[in-house]
Amino acid sequence: MPVEKVYGKLHKEKIALPGIKHLIAVASGKGGVGKSTTSVNLALALHSMNLKVAIFDSDIYGPSVPKMMNLKGKPQLLPNKSIKPMENFGIKCMSMGLFVGEDDPVIWRGPMIMGAIQQMLKDVEWGDLDVMIIDLPPGTGDAQLTLSQSVQLTGAIIVSTPQDIALIDARKGLRMFQKVNVPVLGIIENMSYFEAPDTGKKYFIFGDGGAKREAEKIGVDLLGQIPLDILIREKSDEGNPIYAFDKDHPQSKIYGDIAKKIWKKIDKNPG
């Protein structure tokens, strides 16, 4: 079936984002798989490689980046009517969560969502960036399609747990990107296993190696496997992501390895 019938007429004109070299979408087929946590820690790991990095939180209904990045207050409106992104840990950030209260729902229909996403991309003074990480909402709805059509994405990353039900939804997300001609850089398996701190034994709570098998089946790379670790959750809730808290922590090193793989895939001028 033609892509236009499934996803609507594709935008031919992309939003110009001068100064931004690479835009990477981080997606998941369903919620609760750790996509935003992964986005934040990957951004921090890329920044540690002496890269200029930003995060755009495009999850209008459930923004997580402001809390995870410990962002306080509201973005500043500049004299030229553009918006200055907020910044912490050396990462520029923009999110709908910076404009509404933490407990206030955003009750908008599709066209308003699409307009807000495009406006935040166009009207923010991002400056020169090596990489913008776009934290997408879960699923394959208006926000995902708007971004895929509106900007020139360098590639997309799919985050999933090893669980079969999560992988089914992840497969849909991957195929959406393929339909709109966005390269899929690979899959990240989150919550791969739990390692008992007293014995070191690994427990595969959500199944063993599901994302690896899926990656092999579809023909994309498995970028890494991140274990289920209470410290990752605690530090995200505190607004001090684990990579910022301790970049030498074993889980931080996994994020670092994934970031290096991503940069190697997209950097056209290595060395």
Pick out its properties:
271 residues; alpha/beta; eight-stranded mixed beta sheet; two-stranded antiparallel ribbon; 10 helices; disordered N terminus
Short description:
The chain is of the alpha/beta class. The chain contains ten helices and twelve strands. The relative contact order is 0.19.
What is the secondary structure topology, with strand pairs?
Elements: H1 3-7, E1 20-27, H2 35-47, E2 53-57, H3 65-68, E3 76-77, E4 83-84, E5 86-88, E6 91-95, H4 110-123, E7 129-135, H5 142-150, E8 155-160, H6 164-179, E9 184-190, E10 194-195, E11 202-203, H7 210-218, E12 222-226, H8 230-238, H9 242-245, H10 250-266
Parallel strand pairs: 1-7, 1-8, 2-6, 2-7, 8-9, 9-12
Antiparallel strand pairs: 3-4, 5-6, 10-11
Word description of this protein:
There is one protein chain. The chain has helices at residues 3-7, 35-47, 65-68, 110-123, 142-150, 164-179, 210-218, 230-238, 242-245, 250-266, and strands spanning 20-27, 53-57, 76-77, 83-84, 86-88, 91-95, 129-135, 155-160, 184-190, 194-195, 202-203, 222-226. It has 271 residues and is of the alpha/beta class. It has a single domain, classed as 3-Layer(aba) Sandwich (Rossmann fold). The strands form 3 sheets. The chain has an 8-stranded mixed sheet, sandwiched between helices. A two-stranded antiparallel ribbon has the order 3-4. Strands 10-11 form a two-stranded antiparallel sheet. Strand 10 and strand 11 form a beta hairpin. Helix 2 (35-47) crosses helix 10 and helix 4 (110-123) runs parallel beside helix 5. The longest helix has 17 residues, at 250-266. Residues 1-11 have low confidence and may be disordered.
